[in-house]
Amino acid sequence: MKYLSRSPEELIFEHLPLVKYLAQRLAGRLPPALDSEDLVSAGILGLIEAARRFDPSRKIQFKTFAEFRIRGAMLDELRQLDWTPRSVKEKAAHLEKVITRLEQRLGRPPEDEEVARELGLSLDDYYRLLDEVRGLSLVDLEALRKKLEDQEGLDLEDLLAAEDQEDPFEKLGLKELAEALAQAISELPERERLVITLYYYEGLTMKEIGRVMGYTESRISQIHSKALLHLRGKLRERLGESYREFLS
């Protein structure tokens, strides 16, 4: 494995661009007032911790291991800043319920105009609301990480280890969540599904997705916010209270 001969210092230097990339992706979903440099600083600390704890004898890639640590450090930084006001969380929860209710009533995903009308808003005001809740997460990664830490004898390296071992979601008892999420994504409207696929699976930024789809970066962010609200509602409906801790 190529990492066997690398020192922690070499791993850190080689993967510094990864920190900036992950910070830019996360910052694209946050209010403009937040300084992405704070995320970069936190991410570098996460990278240093990853290099210090990485065991090259395990059958995992350092990049995979480091991404988990870097994202965790950035989320910790955001949590300390307490950047999401309660009012925004309440608006996101209400919007999620409205989208879910409309889909149940219509028998299909609601159009933007229908959601705006249900909310009693103009289309422009509805889009501004989507901008306001754009820092929304699909799954509470802190709760997921805590579940990992609570598993006796299960370390991050075990979770990310070689493909011939038990499925990591199975280890965490989250197989049902993974299957429900895959099904929910498949049921999204084509435009929302494409944004989710390009952002989370292909690793494109909002700006890059906008170029692919012919929309502005702001419009892609709005589509992304609606898709996450849509998915959260579907997961709550399918999984019930047993997974509430991961959808808060």
Explain this structure to me?
The protein has 248 residues and is mostly helical. It has helices spanning 8-27, 36-53, 62-81, 86-106, 112-119, 123-132, 141-150, 156-159, 168-171, 175-186, 190-201, 206-213, 217-239. The protein has two domains: 2-83, RNA polymerase sigma factor, region 2, helix turn helix motif (Rna Polymerase Sigma Factor, Chain: A), CATH 1.10.1740.10; 86-138 and 160-246, Up-down Bundle (Butyryl-CoA Dehydrogenase, subunit A, domain 3). It is built from 13 helices and no strands. Helix 1 (8-27) runs antiparallel to helix 2 and helix 2 (36-53) crosses helix 3 (62-81). The longest helix is centred in the C-terminal third of the chain and has 23 residues, at 217-239. The protein is elongated, with a radius of gyration of 19 Å. Mean pLDDT is 78; it is low at 159-165.
